[in-house]
Amino acid sequence: MKHFLAYTFLIGFLATKTNGQVNTPNGVQVPPAALFAYLDAWPNTNAQLQSFQNDIQNGFYGASCVVLNDYTRQYNCHGYAWHVSTGGNKIGIDQVTHGGVTPYVSGVNPSYTQTIYNGTQGKLRVRYSGDHSAVTTYDAGKYISKWGAGPLVKHNANDVMPGYGVPSSYWTCKYAPPLTSVYLDGKLISGSFQNTTWGAHNMQIFWGLDPDTGPTFSSTAASTIINNQSSGTVNFTFNGPSNNGGLSIAFCGAPRYSFTFFKSSSAKMQIYPNPVQDDETITVSSESEVDVQAVNLDNKVNRIIKISLLDDRQRVLYNYLPNAEGNLTTVKLSAVLKGTYLLKATFEDGTVQTKRVVVEK
Questions:
Q1: Omega of the bond prior to 273 within 30 degrees of 0, cis?
Q2: For residues 226 and 213, is the Cβ–Cβ distance under 8 A?
Q3: Which residues of 9-27 are buried (b: 16+ CB within 10 A; e: fewer)?
Q4: Is the pLDDT at 47 greater than 80, yes or no?
Q5: In the prediction, which pLDDT does 215 show?
Q6: Mean predicted confidence (pLDDT) in 24-42
Q7: CA–CA separation, 269 vs 294, rounded Å?
Q8: Alpha-carbon distance values, 198 to 262, 294, 297, 303 (Å)
Q9: Least trusted range by pLDDT, from 69-78, 79-88, 160-169, 297-306
Q10: pLDDT one-digit tens code per residue, 173-221
Q11: 33: number of CA atoms within 13 Å, CB side?
């Protein structure tokens, strides 16, 4: 009789339709008619559900079955497997009558694509030949599924209720959860381009829906990942000599977000005297008691590699090479110059600073 009662509530439940709107992870609306809520006591009472749960735990449907969460009427197998594997917004989805799973796997923008199961992959969705869905685990051959209004169960593929059938197809996610916030060194950032300094940094990423297989992080130009955690926290460092680097973030195996960081330079270019008399020598320096040099973590000065004299229309009149040290050089101005000019210093990290110089008679 226990077997009959359990089979009845899982196959032929009475439910009420819900009025709320539910979208797939990729934003496609699930048919409202496919959404339901189990009634409080029919077709099974709490006592019957508890008895059914005890039977599962005691091996009635297979020795592999382990109850992970107690029975609940808040969601069913399809709501668990397709909407978000953690249970997500705990909803019941009716597949047989109203095709509630269909928007998740086909149509204009499906959130899952069919794949092949090798026996050890986790987080794949499983469609059974009967009216049932499950999620694979990294424990070889073990699935997790919600048994109707009953408990959440970990089990072998075929240790399920009669009528569920056998696994018939496997599906992997192809959606990106929405990023909710990103912190760089403890400070909230916005956008995908940020200024920072050379050296080690910490980045925290918070996202919306369960990303299933991620996130995973990989380095872009001139940066190195120190640790690659799935918790949403990653440490990275800039290595140079490029003045930018960053992180690429993938969910479900596909790149979704990319953050590029530009190394700040604290180099200051000093010109003296200024104003200057024509035919006088001026000094261009990145060393000053009042201005800070650009010093990298290895204590190497960010040296000047080229100096250019430009007119007021940004046209280059002369190019000068700095001295061997690259942090102090002199420029001899022509006697025919008079007016306002620009001296542009290019540093070895690629940054540029420009100062206005006035030439007087």
A1: yes
A2: no
A3: bbbebebeeeeeebebbbe
A4: yes
A5: 82
A6: 88
A7: 10
A8: 9, 11, 7, 16
A9: 297-306
A10: 888 888 888 898 888 887 777 777 778 888 888 887 777 767 888 888 8
A11: 5
Count how many Cα atoms sit within 13 Å of the Cα of residue 156 in the half-sphere of its side chain: 7
Residue 185, CA distances (Å) to 66, 81, 225 in order: 42, 36, 15
Greater confidence (116 vs 270) lies with 116
Please say whether the beta carbons of 304 and 347 come within 8 A.
yes
Distance CA 114, CA 106 (A): 10
DSSP string, 108-145: SS-SEEEE---SS-SS-EEEESSS-EEEE-SSTTEEEE
What secondary structure does DSSP assign to 147-170, as a single string?
A: -TTS-EEEEETT-S-TTS--EEEE
The pair phi, psi for residue 258, each rounded to 5°, is -135, 130
Q: Residue 295 above 60 pLDDT?
A: no
Residue bearing the bigger pLDDT, 282 or 123: 123
Yes or no: say if 173 and 213 are a contact pair by the CB < 8 Å rule.
yes
Of the CA atoms within 13 Å of residue 263, those in its CB half-sphere come to 28
Query: What tokens appear for 138 in the block?
Result: 């990294």
CB-based contact 125:137 (threshold 8 Å): no
Single out the residue of 105, 92, 138 nearest to residue 25, CA to CA. 105
The arithmetic mean of pLDDT across residues 13-20, rounded, is: 59
**β-pairing verdict for 187-189 and 125-128:** unpaired
User: What is the pairing mode between strands 187-189 and 179-184?
Assistant: antiparallel
Letter for the amino acid at 7? Y
338, pLDDT greater than 80: no
CB–CB of 239/223 below 8 Å?
yes
* Residue 50 burial by Cβ neighbours in a 10 Å radius (0-12, 13-18, 19+): middle
Q: Is 319 helix (H, G, I), strand (E, B) or coil?
A: strand
Contact present, 147 and 161 (Cβ < 8 Å): yes
Q: How far apart are CA 13 and CA 228, in angstroms?
A: 45
Residue spans of alpha helices (H) in 58-195: 77-78, 102-105
Phi, psi for 27 (deg, rounded to 5):
90, 10
**Amino acid found at 259:** F
pLDDT tens per residue across span 115-159: 999 998 888 999 999 999 999 998 999 999 999 999 999 999 999
Q: What is the mean pLDDT of residues 82-97?
A: 79
